[in-house]
Amino acid sequence: MSEHAQPLTASRLCLIPRLIPAPQALLKPCRPIGLPSKNATIVGVYSGAMVTELNYFANLLHPLSDLVPLTVHVINISHKEDKKKGTSTSTSTSTSRSRSRSSSRRKPSRLFNGELGQNNNASTGGGGGDIVPRNVSPLSVLTIGSAFLTIGLLVWSILIRDGVAVVAILTISAASSIVGLASLWEPKLTKRALSSRVPPGDLVLRTRKGAFLVIHCSEEIARELYIGTEECSYTIKSGVFPALVGVGTLLLMIAVVLMGNCEWVMQLAIGVSYILLNGLYWCAALLPARWHWNLGRYEITGEDPRKLGNYTEALWEAIRAASKDEYGRKRGDRYSTDWVQTSSAAPKTPAWNNWLKEAEQHVNDGTEDWNAVEAWQKLQKEEEAEAGLSPMGIIRRTTEKAIGLPLNENV
């Protein structure tokens, strides 16, 4: 149940009185202030902003587990409502033509859950303005099913005139509603407060295994999903929360005592019901977490990932991809590779610094056949030669020259 605690209490269905397995998982002394994140380095290509964790909803859209080492992925994330309103970045005829050409090249990303834009509308009625739980999801089905199961147990206990079982079922059902109310919340994403001009929101995500994900998006989406924080906005204030948890705990203990004094038939029925619910919730925990959330407001398109032979090639490919916009065109007159050093994607050595300068120059010149590995090897050899090191690391220069003292030719 601990895996389901947050998505379960994000829906108002958690207020329905019912039996829930392991209700103590919701009886916590404090509530989380945010959603769980994953370790990854994310940097703004043009903004320079950097974070070292991937937010929860962004990981649902493109899971880190899907990123293969030494691969480069390029995706475009946009708001569906923006497209419905006809929003565009340019009104020129040439832009419209290039957009139609690029749309034929780009397709919904199969690797990164491109089906979200199709399936969500069927189950929720379309993308809304916020991220909310799906109306039809594994947890919502289990919630409704457990409510009907609770009603069936209650009717059965009434028919066999087991008053203790009636009170026990009502008590534990009330406890689940109270605990659900205490933990009821909704996601709060970071929004832009001002409408000032900002740089493009393009980002580059890098994993420790050398996989790169180039994300073309607006500054609004960059703040919502990546740079900003994902907070939990609770319906009940912090001062009332401990009182509700205390009442829920008391009712739960009373219900446990009452269930131990029911007729053996009802004890067996309640026990089997809890075993069944435990198994179903355990199966639900094995399903993808994105099935519980309506992410239909976002549309993802992308290209097939490219597998590279080594990290240098992957970095060069990521630099090239980050220099273009979502339509595959070069963005701006001059492109900078500062984001590489900002995110520590390359070591800060003279050879790597010179390599980045060459890479930046080749990107701006539009060079397609530059051999990044050979260029780095050449620069590395030059650095070793300047340091006076042979391939085996032996100093070849005189002691005076090595330590920077002037040579005395007369000695």
From TrEMBL:
The keyword Transmembrane helix applies. It comes from the Eukaryota. Residues 81-129 are annotated as: Disordered. Residues 98-109 have a biased composition (Basic residues). Keywords: Membrane, Transmembrane, Transmembrane helix. Residues 87-97 have a biased composition (Low complexity). The chain crosses the membrane at residues 139-159, 165-185, 240-258, 264-287. This is Uncharacterized protein.
